[in-house]
Structure formats: C-alpha cells, structure tokens
Amino acid sequence: MEIALFGATGRTGRLVLDEARRRGWTVRALVRDASRLGGSGGSGGPVDVATGDTRDAAAVQALIGTVGSAGIGPGGRRPVDAVVCALGMHDITVPATDFSDSVKAIVAAMKHAGVQRLVAIASGGVFEAPGGGYRNQQPGFPAYLQNISAEHVRNYETLRASGLDWTLMCPLTLAEDIPRGAGRFAIEALPPGSDETGCADLAAAMCSLLGDRASFGKRVGIVSDRPAAPAQP
Predict the structure, then answer these.
(1) How high is the mean pLDDT of the chain?
(2) pTM of the entire structure?
(3) Number of domains making up the chain
(4) Were both Cys, which of 31, 44, 120, 141 would link to 85 (CB 3.0–4.6 Å)?
(5) 19 to each of 11, 122, 137, 167, 203, how far by Cα in Å?
(6) pLDDT per position as a tens digit, 74-95
C-alpha cells in the first residue's frame, strides 16, 4: 500500500504516519515545515517527504501522482493507492477557509490522478441534529468552535459531492493521553458512553478503515473509553 498523507506533523497525523509505517506501507507526506516531522528512520515502510502548501494544486498533485492516457506523464509519478487527510485549521479563532480549500485541492488532485479512496477527519458536529441541520449549527453550540465547525461542514459537503470513495472520521474531543485500544466506532452514528476520542485510536481506525468498503461514502463516529482508575488499597 502506498498512501499520500496530509497533516503528518499534527497530533493525529504523526500517529497515522507511525501506524502506516508499522504496517509496512509507503507514505508520501506533504508538510509546510519538514523540521517538525522529525526523523523517519527506524523500522517500517519508507517515507517520502515533500515541502509545500496543501492549498497549492501543483504541490498536492505532485504528491498524489499523475497519469496520462499513455501512462506516467512527463515528470510525473505513479498515483498512490489512497489518501489520508489529517489536516486541521491553522487558527480556529478567526473565520478562514484554509482547511476547506486544502480539501478541495486534494479532491481535485485525486480526480485528476484517478485515485478514489480518501479517509479524512471532521468532528461529531457534522452528524444531523434530531430537529434538522447539523449538530454543530444548533443553538448553544460553543462559540469558540464555530469557525472550525463551519470548515467541517464545508468539507463534508465537498466530499459528499465528490464522487470519491471517502470516509469522514467524526471524533468528539480529542485527547492525547488515552492509550490506544479503547476506541469504539459506528458508521453514521456516534457511539454512546464517552465524549472523548483518543488520538491513537483515531489514527489506528483511519488506517484500518482504508480497505473497509462498508465505510465508503460514510461518516464514522468514534469515541474512546478511558481505562478505569486502579482500585485504592
């Protein structure tokens, strides 16, 4: 398996990179600052790192690959098997479209290269509310999340109209201190019982679902259960 990974320097993207390499996959990663990625040595699949902006159509296309009617185009490279998008918003305190512009560039590059499979991240807020509309558009939704929530909705609607085999992971509050192995996920629903999602569980699920056809064109809710505290003597 060879994947293109966007967001490899983020808290979930780093774990996706590690998980993909552990599985022996080849990873192509596009990052703005390669120094933030750290070393890619050790055991596991190889990593090909490129520097660029995920809103730059040419940089995204170069990473995903391109192929013409007669095979690989001049200066091109063979397309990847799948794409994983672990991007987020650069600054959630101000309205912006950097995140959704990047997703649009990725979708366009995938279509150009003939790559169908994409797994990306939004949040549980893009599920429908009981009374209609998205959960993150309901009265009382935290104001500080409005900007990132608007981007999540834009991305969901971009993927829904894309014609690709996409899966959109929809975690709740991300936590870095929950150990891997406590995650539960459901297709087109939020599993009950937790309001947190471990980054390690999210990364593992994203890699595991790449080959799961049941998740194509679906939102996947994912939560994690914190391990029980040890009993006091």
Answers:
(1) 92
(2) 0.92
(3) 1
(4) 120
(5) 13, 20, 34, 18, 7
(6) 556 899 999 999 999 999 999 9
